[in-house]
Amino acid sequence: MFRKRLPPEEERRVRANDREYNEKFQYASNCIMTSKYNIITFLPVNLFEQFQEVANTYFLFLLILQLIPQISSLSWFTTIVPLVLVLSITAVKDATDDYFRHKSDNQVNNRQSQVLIGGILQKEKWMNVRVGDIIKLENNQFVAADLLLLSSSEPHSLCYIETAELDGETNMKVRQSLSVTSELGDPNNLAQFDGEVLCEPPNNKLDRFCGTLYWKDCKYPLSNQNMLLRGCVLRNTESCYGLVIFAGPDTKLMQNSGRTKFKRTSIDRLMNTLVLWIFGFLVCMGVILAIGNAVWEKEVGALFQSFLPWDPPVDNFLFSAFLSFWSYVIILNTVVPISLYVSVEVIRLGHSYFINWDRRMFCSRSNTAAEARTTTLNEELGQVEYIFSDKTGTLTQNIMTFNKCSINGRAYGEVMDILGAQQKRVQPLDFTAWNPLADRDFCFYDQSLLEAVMVGEPAVHEFLRVLSLCHTVMSEEKREGVLVYKAQSPDEGALVTAARNFGFVFRSRTPGTVTTHELGKAVTYTLLAILDFNNIRKRMSVIVRNPEGRIRLYCKGADTVLFERLHSCNHELMNITSDHLNEYAGDGLRTLALAYRDLSEEQWEAWAERFRGADKATDCRDDRLAAVYEEIEQDMMLLGATAVEDKLQDGVPETIAILSLANIKIWVLTGDKQETAVNIGYSCKMLTDDMTEIFIVNGHTVQSVREELRKSRERMLESARTRDGGKEVEAQGWGGACAFGNGCGGGGASNWVPNKSKCSPPQAPPSSLLESISGEFALIISGHSLAHALEADMEREFLETACACRAVICCRVTPLQKALVVELVKRHKKAVTLAIGDGANDVSMIKTAHIGVGISGQEGIQAVLASDYSFSQFRFLQRLLLVHGRWSYLRMCRFLCYFFYKNFAFTMVHFWFGFFCGFSAQTVYDQYFITLYNIVYTSLPVLAMGIFDQDVPEQRSLEYPKLYEPGQLNLLFNKREFFICIAQGIYTSVVLFFIPYGVLSHATQSNGVPLADYQTFAVTTATALVIVVSVQVRNTQLVLQKKHKPGGRVGRGVGGAGVASGSALGRLGRGGSRRSGYAFAHQEGFGELITSGKNMRLSSMALATFASRHSSSWIDTLRRKKHANSTGAQNTPPTGEDSAASSQTPPLSTSSSAAGKAGQACNEPVLTHSPDDIALSVIRCPEREVGECSTGTVQEAPFVWKGTGARINGASSPGPPPIAEETSSGE
């Protein structure tokens, strides 16, 4: 805990079996600690964190004041009891969370490991392992630290590991020790090993290690292939030995694990600001009343000094005013009572239980229920704008199936009847009848491929031979004839399994041979070379010698790179295969092309010499190998292509579609290769063929990445200008707000500025013009490019480009890069982020996001333990956000609005009473009423509303995802809403005080005795207060008010400039003919009437189209305003008629001519709490050509008016019907 911080390492030196030498470098031990507190630090650290809440500090200050008898007119227990209660509840919750972290740490630290000490293997706890120790690992054991593999029980010192904890991949990977240490397989030999390793310092790069072993006056280069990283599991290997290089917090697993962060919601942060404002308001009221006290004591109080002297400490009117100020600070502190925070915690706890009890988020297959692991973030679930998702195990089941293939120009996999129609419900083929080694779980339906194998078609046999030889799969034979494949990628396993079922069975391999069974006959091939896959090559090849001595190269890879390396005689076959590949890609399948090349002995010998030279190179080794690979992979003959399906989890495409309609952007951050991620993007409908363009960033230098991002942005702008004819870009928020056809281009990448004379005054452009372009773009970026894009001088360019795209996929990213991407969006977009994953490689991302969600899947529970919410299926995310999140946000906002209202109404009565009691800090209410007002008298109604309130049923929230957007825009509780609440509270206090005062002040009984006394007045006021604020609960339903303007105009809309009623309209923008279908009603909030049916309900297809066209609804108008404000754009507000001219929608008249020309009308909403305000629905007009919308259509839409006699001024059609008729019929 008090360990001195060491300077950063520049290099690391480790000597085997020499603890004394290694300890002088003070390397970290292997003990890990992910908890935040210990027994000593818990109380001070936890209290420090809690008093970062401004409210807690505020109440502590008030408590100190109440302990001073000269200024306190209230007992101290009214503050200390609830304050201690709140602090204790929070402390217990934090202690419980940290206890489980300690428990997890202790479980890991106390695992046993075999350490070589003094030539003898001894059992040691992981926490006692030190850098330089030699450890023995056995099959299925976790790797305790980052080890240099010294030797293995397997031939050629190979070692097989599973890396699910690191990169989320459950497939097998191969590691190999140096040949010089592979002989040290005996503890006696290893005890004499004194080699020294000089390597790079601790870092978070999972796929790279650079070092050198010095032993016996020789040096040997070390790479990542020689390393076993902490978190891996040893598989299919009896035992191995390793030298500890990095331990504990220095291991790559821990370097990629973010620290536990204290998460607060945006409402919590706003509350801190509001408490400061309220305290300032409280001080102002105290100053006013203190000044009043000084004046009263000087002018009036002096007359009473003879029989009513001041208390002993007070000797003049100024000191009396000073004490009065602090007394009023205590009395008026109930504007923010401590019970507010108690109530908030109770409400959040209730919302958490609703999530835990939701049976529709229960997975019966895994017997797993949803779990809210925190109670502090529920309302933040209703404000999410960005979702960052892992791919493997989160979107997919990580299960691959071989579906289709194309061999020598013929497609297999589609089962057709005689007429050429695809048959349904076909039984899968039975392979076991003729192939005892077939996998019984493999399903294939096309009999014609099996027939081609049986008749011996050479192309089909060669195709399947490629699948059985060109791979890195490991085979394990559990018992005779029972094979288990361990593949580095599941799609590779699916291809080998397909070849196995069609008679070409991969049986085993050694470093120099591959053994197969081809149609029942054992064949052993000599493996001459493996040309491995990487992101640049996008292909893999093997060179083998068959038993007859013929040498052949087999290659599989992406069709885009393979087709460029084919012999010219393959042109016709390549065209046919390309058509098949396009069909497969359209079905969302993952495709590979297959080819081969025959090599002569001379060609092989010459190339092998160059290959050995490149392999032994000490500098630019990767580049030299790539050049040698390129030489041999030429003039190949095409065999065909494969199509594999990565099975998605249930409901993933539908969930992504619904979340997209709710304006939630989804980014996929995966450690998988680019082709895999892109195919999954198509499968889950993140990527579609209808997209305008998909940008791929693969640069390896800072300059190349910057250039690719710049070209992507230019293409977006060019696409927008091309599509909209260069005149309508401003309809989507381009530059300023101008009339259609007269729009001012916003500068930037475009210098297009038409007809400046007709433009409204220019506005400052937003920080990124790209965000307002309504194109269907996607961005795909690789991990090495992302490393450059996240640098300080380029991160804004990357963020602007990515945020302008509908879908973003980041491939080959490390766990830390995932966290950095989330942090980038959090820092610059000021949006609520959610990260979801299922593996240990997602932990840092989950901790960094505002909200972390863990999937309890196939990769352990590390993600669940680090998460705020957990469940077993990605599809439950839509219910978590659109139902529970939306309700939690709505309830919390209404609760806060009502709470501030009722407490200002309660407290301000004391302020008015001060002017009638000589500013003596006398309270109006009884002391017990003050104490119990929030705890007893008004607690149940507000808690019931905060826990159970619903504006629309849960099914409507899922059917209409647009209902989610007010939370993203923070419409329901913000500074404006807060001021409205306190204004209503102050108004209520005026009525509650002055009406009873006016009635009772001069009233007398029949016998002449005055009717009024202090107690009667106090009881009357208190009773009226409780009744009024209790009745006001039902009036806290938020209403979106439409401002009605005379002359037939209806506020603002989207699409063009305002024109006079009945005049013709200019050219409409994209999507201008589709209506949004929104309407609002006071009784049911802004949501219920949207979903009440009648003529406002959109079909699912219409809703999808509506969302895909970037709906120009009132919410989009507010979003643009919010974006303009957040980016600091200084917009000049239009006034009068200019308001219509600078708005983006033509006004709507009820006359037939205006109705016929109206393309789309949406009005700017204004939030209000008044029950008498106007609620105006938006007219819904079906998609027609401009001029076809009839007067009858206009009159169908209900208008809700204040008063039944209201009519549109200057309109030729009759006014709308009264509200009662419409609401009754709608309900």
TrEMBL record:
GO biological-process terms attached to the record: Golgi organization; phospholipid translocation
Keywords: ATP-binding, Magnesium, Membrane, Metal-binding, Nucleotide-binding, Translocase, Transmembrane, Transmembrane helix
EC number: 7.6.2.1
Source organism, top-level taxon: Eukaryota
Active site residues of this protein: D390
Residue stretches spanning the membrane: 74-92, 274-296, 316-342, 895-916, 928-948, 978-999, 1014-1033
Region called Disordered, residue ranges: 1122-1168, 1205-1227
One GO term describing the cellular component: trans-Golgi network
One function term, GO molecular function aspect: ATP binding
Residues noted as binding Mg(2+) in the record, renumbered to the chain: D390, T392, D838, D842
Reaction catalyzed: ATP + H2O + phospholipidSide 1 = ADP + phosphate + phospholipidSide 2
P-type ATPase N-terminal domain: residues covered: 14-80
Compositionally biased intervals (Polar residues): 1125-1134
Record has Translocase as a keyword: yes
UniProt: ATP binding residues: D390, K391, T392, E492, F533, K556, R590, T670, G671, D672, R812, K818, N841, D842
Pfam families: Cation_ATPase, PhoLip_ATPase_C, PhoLip_ATPase_N
Cofactor section: Mg(2+)
Name by which UniProt lists this protein: Phospholipid-transporting ATPase
Lineage: Eukaryota, Metazoa, Chordata, Craniata, Vertebrata
